[in-house]
């Protein structure tokens, strides 16, 4: 049964995510226009791929002439880490039906997962689904809306206010870092530290993209193992 109170509380919990998603999705809309992707394909990408940095990678690959199948496989590889988010929340979502699990799985982006992982277990079990739906709904609509706004008006705006470009590019990592710092606990510090070191080593060796993927897979995996061992 729909719970307006739980849903509205989820909306409130999403405000930091929305504040970060709007400028980043706006920047994605601008990037899509710069790659001559067009408004409809840009919005379609945000509606159905909904994967943040992977969308930027996809646009860059298509702009560089990479075949669409290869670009799709690379984008899929960047998103493999998302398969770990559901299992990490499984203990706190045991009362979800299969339909509810499938629906909530779609909205588990990095930032939504970070908030859900740190808060959903503290809520009464009966309120968790609609709270998560509120959290995911606000994040999703802000991402799609920002993409549409960026695609329609972004190129014109940034041509007059070019100083906004670096800020838009840094908004997503800044948001995720703030969420990460807020949920750091002794039990997961080791996983975060190991992931950071791994990504740094790959970056310094000239393989930044590989390091990001490796750290994105290793970090959640270590976090799940550590949580189950508690």
Plain-language structure description:
The chain is an all-alpha fold and 230 residues long. It folds into 2 domains: 4-183, no CATH class; 185-230. The protein is 77% helix and 0% strand. It has 12 helices and no strands. The chain has helices spanning 4-13, 15-34, 39-48, 53-63, 68-78, 85-89, 98-106, 110-119, 128-160, 164-182, 186-204, 208-228. Helix 2 packs antiparallel against helix 3 (39-48) and helix 2 packs antiparallel against helix 10 (164-182). The radius of gyration is 18 Å and the shape is globular.
Oligomer: single chain
What characterizes the major β-sheet?
A: none
Number of beta strands? 0
The backbone outline, from C-alpha atoms, is globular
Based on CA atoms alone, the radius of gyration comes out at 18 Å
Helical proportion, percent range: over 70%
Number of helices: 12
* Count of the domains: 2
Mean pLDDT comes to 83
The first-to-last residue Cα distance is 33 Å
Key features of this structure:
single chain, 230 residues, mainly alpha, 2 domains, 77% helix
What is the gist of this entry?
This protein has 230 residues and is mostly helical. It folds into 2 domains: 4-183, no CATH class; 185-230.
Record the SSE blueprint:
Blueprint: H1 4-13, H2 15-34, H3 39-48, H4 53-63, H5 68-78, H6 85-89, H7 98-106, H8 110-119, H9 128-160, H10 164-182, H11 186-204, H12 208-228
């Amino acid at each position: 049964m729909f719970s307006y109170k739980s849903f509205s509380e989820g909306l409130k919990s999403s405000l930091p995510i929305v504040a970060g998603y709007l400028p980043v999705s706006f920047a994605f809309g601008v990037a899509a226009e710069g790659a001559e992707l067009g408004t409809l394909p840009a919005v379609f990408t945000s509606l159905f791929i909904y994967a943040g940095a992977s969308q930027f990678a996809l646009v860059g690959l298509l702009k560089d002439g990479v075949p669409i199948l290869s670009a799709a496989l690379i984008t899929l590889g960047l998103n493999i880490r998302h398969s770990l988010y559901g299992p990490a929340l499984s203990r706190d979502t045991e009362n979800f039906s299969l339909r509810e699990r499938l629906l909530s799985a779609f909205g588990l982006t990095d930032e939504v997962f970070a908030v859900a992982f740190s808060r959903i277990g503290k809520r009464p079990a009966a309120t968790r689904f609609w709270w998560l739906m509120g959290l995911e709904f606000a994040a999703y609509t802000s991402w799609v809306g920002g993409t549409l706004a960026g695609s329609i008006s972004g190129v014109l705006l940034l041509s007059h206010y070019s100083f906004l470009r670096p800020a838009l590019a840094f908004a997503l990592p800044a948001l995720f870092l703030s969420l990460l710092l807020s949920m750091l606990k002794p039990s997961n510090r080791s996983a975060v530290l190991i992931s950071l070191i791994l990504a740094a080593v790959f970056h310094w060796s000239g393989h930044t993209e590989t390091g990001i993927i490796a750290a994105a897979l290793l970090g959640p995996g270590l976090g799940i193992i550590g949580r189950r061992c508690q």
